[in-house]
User: What shape does this take?
Amino acid sequence: MRELIMVRYGEIYLKGLNRPYFQNLLLSRVKNAVKPFGGQTVLHDSRIYVRGMTDVEACIQALTRVFGVHSVCPAIEMGKDDFEAICQQALHLMEGLEGTFKVYARRADKRYPMDSPMINAQLGGYILSRRPDLRVDIRTPDHALNVEIRDYAYLYVRVYPGPGGMPVGSNGRAALLLSGGIDSPVAGYMIAKRGVSLCAVHFHSFPYTGERSKQKVLDLARILSGYCGGMRVYVVPFTELQMRIHEQCPEDYTTLIMRRYMMRIAQRIAQKERAQALITGESIGQVASQTMSALACTDQVVAGPVFRPLIGFDKSEIIAYAERIGTYETSCLPYEDCCTVFTPRHPVTQPKPDKTEQAEQKMGDVEALMEAAVENAEVIDL
Amino acid sequence: MKVYLDNSATTRPGDQAIEAMRSAMTDGYFNPSALYAPALAAEKDMDRCREQIRAVLHAAQGQVTFTSGGTEADNLAIAGSLLGRRPGGKVLYTAGEHPAVLESCKAMADQGFEAVPIPLGPDGLLDLQQLDSLLSKDTRLICVMQVNNETGAIQPLEAVAKLRDRRCPQALLHVDGVQGFLRHHCPVQLWGIDSYALSAHKIHGPKGVGALWTGSRVRLTPILHGGGQEQGIRSGTENTPGIAGLSAAIAAYPAHHDMRALKLRLYERIRAGIPGVSINGPAPEGADAADHILNLSFAPVRAETMLHALEAEGVYVGNGSACSSRKGRHSHVLTAMGLPAARIESAIRFSLAPDLHMEQIDYAAQAVIRSYGLLKAYTRR
Assistant: This one.
């Protein structure tokens, strides 16, 4: 008998001929998450088993953050031939639990002499006879006692839900525009959850923003990398371009033009990183630069797809999501961020594409400035 | 060149203080409450520090209680003199008090006392006439800081005490001396102050240690309970290394220094380069302006931007006070002085130390002028 962690996966279960590819990718993500705890991972019988880890609780916590994982269960693995021993172990697992329960038997090994209903009945009876305080409820039990009969018998009561989604790396790579606000980390999380590996691009406007606002962004990236297993962050020096915009462009267009330059630079970094798309945290109408006309105007300067997973979310929904993934508190630290430094009094909400281009032309040749921004970006691997 | 001008946030511990702390940990690590001889030596070291503090405050009598810092000393003075007593009556505090006092007084409002702010004038000094109108027979406690940590305004403590004696002699007068201790004269007994809080890390000592002096009229109720150290007023094994550091810092603080002259030079240089600069607080050359604090506004350049630009030049300054700069709110001190938002948002605090040189001051002034010249055109419109 030994303790192990059983990792169950969701969506990739449905894949056809490609399933081994996804399974192996998930296995490598799980191995990565388990590495600090020294466990061995094995893929077997459509489950990933983790054995021999040093800190079970911390290991479970790490596993519930791996995209592609449906649920994580600390389980007991034991010989299946001695049913009495299974019953005793099950009784042991139920210690300290109160209320109602139900036995869920699953007999994957069809040669096993007892079928699932028989296991349910006998095991349930055994527990009831020794724990008269418990009651059986087969519809909405407080506790589900799971028994799986495979090469061994597996018993577990606790089930921790995973994040779902697909293993990171199974769906390409994208560059996230990470500001330090509430929205962009959530947007990155949502796309990474679909199996996309991330790199992040942050625009830094020293001296308008300081070391603390940069640290805040790195802290956010670190939280995200807990889910997506590492991330490269580009901190782009953006002050000179912002100053040029501020000097040369009509005030009401400055934010929009700044957004367009951010997209242009992010696109160049995406190319370097072989990322196929950009991700932003924009939501229709949230601020002036996120009206539909403004978004269209921003998109004009980008060749590839721009993913905006929060496009239909209200702020309150985004906040709830941020709280759930653990980025909200960090996002709320009060340092200036690059977007608010030069906020115009009345930013344009219905920009005209031709007018935007005319305004940009006033800046003269900024190719050198853009090139310098990309070249001088600080690269931090998390 | 590196110029540290944020000495009101904290100071660099002096070599003597560091050495005293090291020695208190390696040789003098005994618990002062133990019965053997080396423990007695540790206790004597603490008593020597109490004497030093009394000497600085020109107090022949009174009790010195060591705390974990200025904040705890203020909390102890306010909560310790009111809680467990008959509730009711007023607790007055100047609107520009440090949060350690401000929040402690506001907390007393939940305990049946009335917390009332004393308005500040546009120069950051409390208005004695306004104070006069607030004092009444039911005033229990008046909190007035010696030197304001943001503006450097030296409050008229002697006059406040006289007014108290005339209008409500029963009221206690607590002084937060964290910024003023050692830097400005404060004879607590002569002036009629009842309690005085100080902190080691503002005077080139270590963080995590402070003290509260209390005169004979104060009966403190402990706010921390435990082993009954510090005559039952402040339980917890005494921070002997911290106290040794505080003691050495007091001993090492120079009797003569040029901070006032350096501050005035900094101001003159900056004003020559930036004629539009405005002073937040009393006129720098006046007797009611602290030697070591200069608060200036560089509108339209936001304080945070100016701070980072100066940081890039190796000059470290404060925006508002360190305690409030992480909360992203406007300075309550400058707001209480009635300053316009643009001035509050662009306020930079320069705070000096005795070991600064003229070259450093001149370099800092140049850096300010240079940064301002660069940034003034690039601000939010």
